[in-house]
Design a protein that fits this description.
The protein has 267 residues and is of the alpha/beta class. It contains 10 helices and 10 strands. The strands form 2 sheets. It has an 8-stranded parallel beta barrel, surrounded by 5 helices. α4 crosses α5. The structure holds phosphoenolpyruvate and manganese (II) ion.
């Protein structure tokens, strides 16, 4: 493992709008793959808040494999994220896809996410090192743990200490699932880095019926949070409906929180 100058001290806690993310503060982030309109986003966020989920996600700029698929609402989506966060008091998460969007996004979104396809976009990472918003850095789908932690180091070295790592599945020979969730990345990161690590069971499996077991597995393995695509009517969503869960499944996942996090003495 190459030198990780900024990740060797005791585990860090990231604070945002009075809420903490870290080893002793498990975080649930949920919401749609992409923002479709203001009403649906507000509806989803309000329902999440009611069941104790204070972080909501929604993509405004989408990194789609095909150029013929919906690319997101763009700036209009950012306005909706800000409005919903202001109205509900919740914390918003959305993906930043280009260095030139960083400034605008930092003003509209609380936590900026770097997607798997951009993990090694170092110019983007350096730009994110110059803002104060926490950054969720997803693991590149073909990246080693060392490459991932070094990518985080780029943001940290540039001056932003608020980095959260997100395991979202890697490419393997298996194609029954969309990617393969690397559960071993959780204890590996915890032994190598002081940054919080969360897990995305949605993009790793690509399968709705697996989200509950993978979420529980991540909690049992010591993850510091979960990022789950959730919608009140998953079958109707424009993007990633096959992996999006409804509120019923989300409630089942949440039900085991205390029991599973007790394994790590964190709630
Ligand atoms: C997302 O979370 O919306 C997303 C596109 O994830 P990933 O970059 O992991 O594919
Ligand atoms: Mn998605």
């Amino acid at each position: 493992m190459r030198d990780l100058k900024h990740q060797q001290s005791k585990p860090i806690e990231i604070e945002i709008k009075g809420r903490k993310i870290g080893r002793d503060n498990f975080v649930f982030i949920a919401g749609p793959c992409t923002i479709e309109n203001y009403e649906d986003l507000l509806n989803i966020a309000s329902r999440l808040k009611k069941i104790g989920v204070n972080f909501f996600r929604g993509g405004a700029y989408k990194m789609r494999t095909s150029p013929y698929n919906f690319q997101g609402l763009g700036q209009e989506g950012l306005e909706y994220l800000k409005k919903v966060a202001d109205e509900t008091g919740m914390i918003s998460v959305s993906e930043v896809v280009a260095a030139e969007d960083v400034e605008l996004m930092s003003k509209h979104v609380d936590i900026l996410q770097v997607g798997t396809r951009n993990m090694q976009n170092y110019r983007l990472l350096w730009k994110l090192g110059k803002i104060e918003n926490p950054i969720i850095l997803k693991r590149g789908m073909s990246s080693t743990i060392e490459e991932w932690l070094l990518a985080a180091e780029h943001i940290l070295e540039a001056g932003n200490p608020n980095v959260i790592l997100c395991e979202r599945g890697i490419r393997t020979f298996e194609n029954f699932t969309r990617h393969t969730l690397d559960i071993s990345a959780i204890p590996a990161v915890k032994s190598l880095s002081n940054l919080p690590i969360i897990v995305d069971p949605s993009h790793s499996s690509g399968r709705r019926e697996m989200i509950k077991s993978l979420s529980w597995a991540a909690m049992a393995a010591g993850a510091d949070g979960l990022l789950i695509e959730t919608h009140f009517d998953p079958d109707t969503t424009i993007c990633d409906s096959e992996q999006t869960i409804d509120f019923e499944i989300l409630a089942e996942i949440l039900k085991k929180k205390d029991q599973l996090l007790d394994l790590w003495v964190k709630k």
